[in-house]
Amino acid sequence: MTSRVIPVEPFVLVVFGGTGDLARRKLIPAMFERDAAGQFPEEADVIGVSRGKMTQEAFAALAKEAVEEHVPQKERPAPSVKRFLKRLHHVAADATEDEGWVALGEELKRFEGRIVVFYLATGPALFGPICKRLGEFGLATGNTRVVVEKPVGKDSESAHAVNEAIAQVFPEDRVYRIDHYLGKETVQNLMALRFANGLFEPLWNAAHIDHVQITVAEALGVEGRAGYYDTAGALRDMVQNHLLQLLCLVAMEPPAMLDADAVRDEKLKVLRALKPMVAPNWVRGQYRAGASAGGPVPGYLEDLGAQDSHTETFVALKAEIENWRWAGVPFYLRTGKRLAERVSEIVITFRPVPHSIFGQGAGPIVANRLVIRLQPDEGVKLWIMIKDPGPGGMRLRPVPLDMSFAAAFAGRNPDAYERLVLDVVRGNQTLFMRRDEVEAAWAWIDPILEAWSQAPEPPRPYTAGTWGPSAAIALIERDGRTWADGGM
Ligand code: BG6
Fold this sequence. Notes:
The chain has 2 domains: 11-149, NAD(P)-binding Rossmann-like Domain (Rossmann fold, 3-Layer(aba) Sandwich); 182-411 and 436-477, Dihydrodipicolinate Reductase, domain 2 (2-Layer Sandwich). Helices cover 34% and strands 21% of the residues. It has helices at residues 21-36, 56-70, 78-85, 101-109, 127-136, 156-167, 185-195, 226-232, 234-251, 260-273, 300-304, 405-408, 416-426, 435-454, 470-477; strands at 11-16, 44-50, 88-92, 115-120, 144-148, 175-177, 209-217, 282-288, 290-292, 295-297, 314-319, 331-336, 343-350, 369-375, 379-387, 396-404, 460-463. Helix 1 crosses helix 13 and helix 10 (260-273) runs parallel beside helix 14. 41% of the residues are buried. It binds 6-O-phosphono-beta-D-glucopyranose.
């Protein structure tokens, strides 16, 4: 991949939850990668904030371990690691106590004049209290920004409360709500595909598109996050944010420009046009013991260590958008843990040809499909019908016009967090969710949650390593369609 490295302005990144899982798995490795690529100016520092006291050396040691664990060896030459570790500092502060905040203020004084990014890599319950302290201790000054991780709330009401608490201290143009899917190269490429090509847009509507499928399937289970996950479930964890954001990028009108509010205004219109969901347009499931990657794996309840839970680890939905462009075009969404394989893709199925001029012997004419593979094996395939070469008469078959990112571009595919954190430093909110977007997404999710909370029956079981409960297959098959498994 040809990349361009444009250094950012001097900054200091303050990570609350600086020793936590997200910091170690994502933020520290991402910051290291950008520093190693030469994107940091001399004046760039990272302050980890956590409750326990810690020496600078101990924090640097933790960061070094994170880099070694998550950055491939060939991408971390010793001098780059050494330079990066010198940028790290630690301050102990407690979101719910007064302690530590003066010390944080003192530390920040050393970096006066720089852009300050407060990254709240903590549970959402702490977003309000941390912002409050930042305000009270005079730390939320003009050149500061705040980044919050999803989930913002667990329904409309709580999301509104969290957003209000943040808004007491930070105006919306300094709030960055992360949905890391928006930072994925292939997700950004969706906008290039739609708006940098003249080919698709004339066909991008109900007259030419039969239906859309959006699948975000994971092969892994809850991986030690069962405590959090059991309070969330797939609908809150994945659909409210990642899948709806993908749906918005597929369905939105062309924004006038690639500007944060222009893009987000268009996404918001899609969210507001979503038809309210009712049964039976949803299926929820929960994995049972099965096999994954060739080995046996336990079921969700065993992962959770509980006898019972109605938390869904799988969701399939049939969504509809009530506007001129999309009326009558179903958007089938599907996500789950412990599914047959890890694959995220968007499949646009065009309408069938109106009439076949070919006889019976030619075989069926399969409708064209555009498959946008987000991960892994990123790429774009356009399935078209061709004549099978050679003698034997006119026989038709589908073949893909196939563009694989790995084959087309050399180089590494940067992690979403690399792009997103530096976008915060640059002050570019395009790839972040605006408050009204988050709240509109919750407004659509709320009635589903409400219906599920009142349903006596548990989620439908499915065996780990499969494509989810059979009801999910029925959901689409009763419309005479099928899930496009395996990139077809
Ligand atoms: C996170 C969810 O937002 O996204 C996780 O909380 C999920 O449950 C993850 O595993 C998936 O992200 P990715 O980038 O691995 O597809």
